[in-house]
Structure formats: structure tokens, C-alpha cells
Amino acid sequence: MTDDTWGQVCNELQKAVGQNNYTTWIAPLELIDLEDGIASFQAPTKFMCDWVSRNFAEPILSELRRAGVSAERVNISVPSRRPMNGTANGATRPTVPAPAPAAPVAKPRKTPRPDEPLPGAPLDSRFTFDSFVVGKPNELAHAAAKRVAEGGPVTFNPLFLYGGVGLGKTHLMHAIAHDLQHQRPDLRVLYLSAEQFMYRFVQALREKQIMDFKEMFRSIDVLMVDDVQFIAGKDSTQEEFFHTFNALVDQGKQIVISADRAPGEIKDLEERIKSRLSCGLVVDLHPTDYELRLGILQTKTEAYKSEYPDLKIAPGVLEFVAHRITSNVRILEGALTRLFAYGSLIGREITMDLAQECLKDQLRQSERKVTVEEIQRKVAEHYNVRLSDLVGPKRLRAIARPRQVAMFLAKSLTTRSLPDIGRRFGGRDHTTIMHGIRKIEELRGTDSQLAEDIELLRRLLES
Ligand code: ADP
Ligand code: MG
Could you describe the subunit structure of this protein (predicted)? Predict the structure, then answer.
């Protein structure tokens, strides 16, 4: 295969997996060779290698084939540090990690560590990796958090986690801190909210202890700042945060940041900070899907049952809740707690009827009043296509994809049936609608641009 062909394949991949995924995962790959139907690539780190192998081998293969390259398998490895007689891809399974960055792992400290506790926020003992349920929407965030929790050499800095409220950002950060406390008690780990960061900073200014403040923050090995969007528009806090951030990164210390949106989208945050925040691994926690919600409900019910073995829930109740309460995990947990309390109060099995009765307020809140027509209008606007095209017969991708997005939103935001939705899409058959919905569900997992579009539209429509 020529470089040209690979270049073309890359162009196609960019479209197939979305710009974000492409830049983060595909662009850094180096094509090594293509022999016996095996396309071999090298990735810069073991983490990337694992992630790409698991999630992008399929799209890479299919785009290769579409470009006429006969490939049966994709093999991704990490460059071996010892040269192996000129061939770099000797190993089928990557075993040698990427060269560690400048800072060695266990560097002896120059000065004895101060005994005073770090002024962080208390950790919630329930927020552990064990209690975190992994699904498609949070898989990458979880994997990256796990990686940081090992406390090994820094592979990406910062780790930037973002997503809507109640999707598990704080949970993951606490989980990292818990794990590090056990596995690497030698490391100084500090978790705090951006608000607390500001509070400390202002207090230090007031008490003329800014040198102590700086020294303390620069002595940390792993710094985690939650809800960083809070410092937007607060100029001197931003400035100090930026210096702290840079000082730690320069020393090869790990930083984990969370926010409610991507770095580039935080208003009133300085450009240079945005760009520093984007230069590590930026991962979004997608809105929950049905499987994840059900997984969370089941896990929490099991945990609850082990304490209260008398609790009985009729089959189908958890599925019902997972279907109907879709906003975020915090609200889902609230609903479940309410169910348990209700169940223990009446001392009977929680049936579907009882669940409906007990959760009627929560269910009403998540009941959607949005119409299919409104969805179509907003989607057409967002993708800049004509409304008449969106419901019309044209099959161009530039129209067909937005149409499928609209179908998907119509199904998930309204209570309309598939045939009913079909009628509102120019009299299409319900199987066409179903196909469109499936397609979007499938793409959403790999195409983060699409996932973002959908989330944005959903928020617009529900507001
Ligand atoms: P965020 O910081 O993103 O607003 P949190 O981390 O505070 O959200 O999560 C809200 C609640 O939902 C917490 O009680 C948390 O334990 C729970 N939660 C979120 N995601 C998960 C998950 N994947 N598995 C189990 N619990 C979760
Ligand atoms: Mg939070």
C-alpha cells in the first residue's frame, strides 16, 4: 500500500469516526507494514494501543478494504525500546510500555514531606471504582481514570473529563484518589473543587501567605480540580491556576480536571488556558443510555438487598425505571432510593403499579412535551438543511444523516410510536425509522461529534 492510499484511507476514517476521535486516536498511528493481510501500526503509548485495538480496529479495517487493500487483521503495537534487528514490529502483543516522560517514578524528595494534611476536599467513601458501573457512554473516561489511578508514569497530562451534571465526573476523581491512597501512599494527592481552589487562593492573598500557597500546590504529585468551569471569568484565580498547572506539568506531575463542557467551550476562560487544558487527553462522559442506566439500577439494588434482604422488587420494575428516567445518574439514584424507602414502608413487594405511584412526580418531570415537528425544525436548523428536505425523499448523506438524527430524537424524546413517527417523516415505513434510529445509536458510540450534536439538540429541545 502506498502512502497515498493510506492518506486516502485516513480521510475516510476522519469522516467515519469523527474529527475528535480521529485526532486523538488515528492520527498518531504510524503505519509500519502490510503483509499477509495484517496491517501493522505503531501507537505511541500502551494505553492508546489497547484503546485503538479495541475500538477502532473495525473502522480501520473496513476503510482499508473500501480502498481496495486486502487486509484481514489490524495489529497495533508499541515501539519496542530495544531495536530488534531493524524490525520494529516483532511482537504481536505489546509488552514494552512507551518511554516514560522526563520524571522518574519514585524520585527521592529533597526536603522531608510536611506533615500537615493537604487542604483538599473530603472524599466520599462510596465513590470507588468498584461501585462505578461501566457502559458505552463512560467507558473511555473510566479506562483513562483507571490508568491515572495506577500512579505510574504520566501518559497524558492533563486528563480532562467533561460531561453534563450527574454523569460521574466527581465519582471518577474520588475513585482515582482512593486507589492512589492505597497503592501509592508515597504520592501527595490533592482533590478539590475549582471553587475551593479559588477560596484558598483568595484567603492566601488576604493573609499574605501567597508563597506558602504556591509552595504547597507545587509540592503535589497528583492534582485534581473538579468543575473547573467555575474559575471562568475570575481573572486572578485563572492566572494563578494557570501558573500552578504549568509548574506541575513541567515537573511531570499528573493533573486531572473536570468541567461541564469541553475546554474550548468554556466561556470567559483565557485562550492559553483552554489550549493547555486541551493538550492532554480530553474525554467526555456521554449521557447515559438504557443499558448503563439498567446496569446502575441493578448494581445499586444488589448492594441494597445485601443490607435489606427483605426487599422485593417485581420483575420489570428496574427496566421500567431505566426506560422512563433518563436525565442523569443522580436523579436515577434518587428515584431508586425513593422506591426502596417506599418498599420498606409498605413492607410488600414493589410492583409496577406501586413504582408508578411512588415515582409519579419524577416520571412527570421527565415526561416530554416536545413534538416531532419541533425536533425536525431544530435539527434542520442545526444542520443547515431545509425542513422540506429533511422530511422529503432525498437520500444524500448530508440530508439522510440529519434525518436519522431527527428520527432518533423523535423516538427518545416523544412517546410517539414508530409508525406514527414514520407518518411525520413524509409517510415512511416504521422499519425505515427503526433503521435510522439503530444507525444513530451505533454511530454515537464512535463518532463523538455526532454524540455532541445530539446532546446539544436534546438540551435545546428539553429546555
Ligand atoms: P458529576 O460530578 O458528573 O456531576 P457525580 O460523580 O457526582 O456526577 O455522580 C452523581 C451520582 O451518580 C453519584 O452518586 C455517583 O455515584 C452516581 N454515578 C454516576 N455515574 C455512575 C456510574 N457509572 N456508576 C455508578 N454510579 C454512578
Ligand atoms: Mg461533580
Answer: Oligomerizes as a right-handed, spiral filament on DNA at oriC.
pLDDT tens, 299-332?
A: 999 988 888 888 889 988 999 899 888 888 999 9
Residues sharing a CB contact under 8 Å with residue 296, sequence separation 6 or more, in sequence order: 133, 288, 329, 332, 333
pLDDT score of 278 more than 50: yes
Q: What CATH number labels 139-284?
A: 3.40.50.300
372-462: what fold?
A: Chromosomal Replication Initiator Protein Dnaa; Chain: A; (1.10.1750)
For a mutational test of ligand 1's pocket, the pick from 142, 171, 289, 325, i.e. the residue with the most ligand atoms closer than 8 A to its C-beta, is 171
DSSP 404-428: HHHHHHHHHHS---HHHHHHHTTS-
Q: What is the pLDDT of residues 23-36, one digit of tens each?
A: 778 888 888 888 88
Are the CB atoms for 173 and 146 separated by under 8 Å? no
Query: Which ligand gives the minimal distance to the CA of 227?
Result: 2
CATH topology of domain 290-366: Helicase, Ruva Protein; domain 3 (1.10.8)
